[in-house]
């Protein structure tokens, strides 16, 4: 049975050279672009994205299979039955590579540093 590839847009630990990229290492990388629909917040070990216009956050887009998509949902704490109760919800956005899913943080980000352009890097001590 053939299933259509699913595109996901990632902005944190799933990007190349980050701690969770191994989940995407064998998937097809479409490319990257500057996404001005979101603002990132540095939560320390990972970033949170909120729908809020920015100057452009660097996002990578991948085509993934169903199994990988399910693993991403699990990693991001996505709850399909109650989308607002999970750690992240997901929405579809338009990218230069077509429609892609993007994970949006469901909780308060007050007091966390904003990243309105560029990209998130983990703290290295």
- Radius of gyration based on Cα positions: 14 Å
The structural class is mainly beta
Low-confidence stretches: none
Sequence of secondary-structure elements? EEEEEHEEEE
Overall description:
By secondary structure, the protein is mainly beta. 8% of the residues lie in helices and 42% in strands. It has one helix at 66-75; strands at residues 6-10, 28-35, 38-42, 47-51, 56-64, 88-95, 98-105, 114-115, 117-118. The strands form 2 sheets. Strands 1, 2, 5, 6, 7 and 9 form a 6-stranded mixed β-sheet that branches. A 3-stranded antiparallel β-sheet has the order 4-3-8, with no helix packed on it.
Key descriptive features of the protein:
42% strand, 1 helix, globular, three-stranded antiparallel sheet
Question: Secondary-structure blueprint of this entry?
Answer:
Layout: E1 6-10, E2 28-35, E3 38-42, E4 47-51, E5 56-64, H1 66-75, E6 88-95, E7 98-105, E8 114-115, E9 117-118
Parallel strand pairs: 1-7, 5-9
Antiparallel strand pairs: 1-5, 2-5, 3-4, 3-8, 6-7
């Amino acid at each position: 049975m053939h299933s259509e590839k699913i595109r996901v847009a990632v902005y944190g630990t799933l990007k190349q050279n980050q701690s969770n990229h191994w989940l995407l290492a064998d998937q097809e990388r479409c490319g990257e672009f500057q996404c001005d629909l979101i603002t990132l917040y540095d939560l320390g070990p990972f970033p949170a994205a909120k729908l809020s216009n920015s100057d452009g956050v660097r996002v990578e887009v991948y085509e993934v299979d169903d199994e990988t998509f399910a693993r991403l949902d699990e990693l991001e704490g996505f709850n399909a039955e109650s989308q607002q109760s999970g750690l992240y919800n997901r929405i579809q956005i338009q990218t230069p590579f077509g429609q892609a899913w993007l994970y949006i943080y469901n909780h308060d980000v007050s007091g966390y540093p904003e990243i309105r352009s560029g990209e998130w890097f983990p703290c290295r001590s």
